[in-house]
Amino acid sequence: MVVLKSVARVTSARLSSRAYSTVISCPSAEIRESLALESKIRPYNEVPGPKGLPFLGNSWRFLPIIGHYQLPELDKIMSSLHNEYGEIVRLGGLIGHADLLFVFNPNEIERIFKREETMPHRPSMPSVKYYKQVLHKDFFGDTLGVVGVHGQRWDNFRSKVHQTMMQPNTAKKYLSPLNQITDEFLNNLQLKRRDTNELDCDFMEELYKWALECIGKVALDTRLGCLNRNLAEESEAQRMIEAVKVFFANVAEVELRMPVWRIYSTPAWKKYIGAFDMFRETCLKYITQAMHKVQAKSNSFKNEEDISLMERILLKTSDPKVATVLALDLLLVGIDTTSVAATTILYHIAKNPEQQDKLHRELVALLPSENDVITEETISKSVYLSACIKESLRMRPVIIGNGRSLTSEAVIGNYKIPEGTHVIFPHYVVGNLEKYFPQAKSFIPERWLKTDECPFGHNKIHRFASLPFGYGRRTCLGRRFAEAELKILLSKIFRKYKVSYEHGEMRYEVQSTYKSPDPVRFHFADR
């Protein structure tokens, strides 16, 4: 069969029986290569990886007391799998879960991504899927969004919003309000500093308020008021802030542990669903208001640049549910990820004063006054800031791994991998390998620049060795907004303050994202 397919591929004319026998007896170079490759393909059971026990498989490794795999230490688990078994590792025998195939080679990751189908299947967030397709199926119907969804319904939704979301001009429209929101955040920061220049609160909690206010403006076309001081406990803004805290405090318990919530409502599940409901109701309220505004002034719109993201979506689809579900998805994935990314970048720059000084010099040249507005030009010229962001997210990506669920049999790393296997791309491990990033444990933003200041500055970095925003058709829909928010925030902070972190090395663990389980406390000294 392989020979026949190869013959069909390399010949354009029908072969006579004589010609056919000639090809078989004297195969071409391409056919010989195809046969050689076929002979190298090995069966799935030969993929290296930890061996399971009878009946328990490898599930015992995650059990309390007897197991040595802890989900918060998934970063260490993946590193040890790579160190012990190599670039392709199978973790099978997981009760109630598909086998996991870890791919630690960026060349192989690239091949998988570039061969994927038009509707790539990513292992879903089961709790989000359950919320949308079971608990509130009457509300969502077939309009399920992009989070926790796959197949035709995912593709249908994506096709309605992707072009609008990914246009550079869409994010550009929000630079002015994002500047205003960030200025308010920094004013609050100033008031919360002690005499030691350290905040009197957990910095991450303050970032959640900032990120929520940013997402509110982008996704709901409104200012929620999360940065207002002395909020009343019963105010919508305060209830949203509390919902964000509750949601992200419980999402890891719900998503990463055994899903007993399918059988009975655990305390974590009840809190999680309560916060989810708050998000959905808030989105519905503001999108309904936006729909009324659009209907009232639909004839006055001149061009797309004059209207908000949600107004564009509403005009394109005439379906408020599409805008509501998009806003909900942006809330679910945009608050924690952006806040964690900002914290990680701040931490790395704070721990490397030489790089911080270099960044400050760049910002002073671009922003002569610390009160200057961050514009599109500022963002495009802040090349060292961009390098700092890339380097930080290489070392500690917000999501330590990406994945796909195989919808058909595939050959990966010369192994035949069956349909249904969950293929994991461990960006955290690959991004910290010396063979792809020399001095990988050191914070060297210059490696991302073409510069003689760094011995690696002219090295070509494998584009699939670090993918903080994913790749392909399932890349992060809100990427342009997240990058704008981060660059505005970081530019304003490092233009105004000298930041330090004086609590040793920040501890990281895998929750819903890769972040510190401890309160985050930076020192912000005036420049």
UniProtKB/TrEMBL annotation:
Signal peptide interval: none
Keyword vocabulary terms for this entry: Heme, Iron, Metal-binding, Monooxygenase, Oxidoreductase
Swiss-Prot/TrEMBL cofactor(s): heme
Residues that span the membrane, as ranges: none
GO molecular function: heme binding; iron ion binding; monooxygenase activity; oxidoreductase activity, acting on paired donors, with incorporation or reduction of molecular oxygen
Pfam families assigned to the protein according to its UniProt record, in alphabetical order: p450
Residue sites binding heme per the record: C476
Family per record: Belongs to the cytochrome P450 family.
Name of protein: Cytochrome P450 49a1
Organism encoding this protein: Menopon gallinae (poultry shaft louse)
Lineage of source species: Eukaryota, Metazoa, Ecdysozoa, Arthropoda, Hexapoda
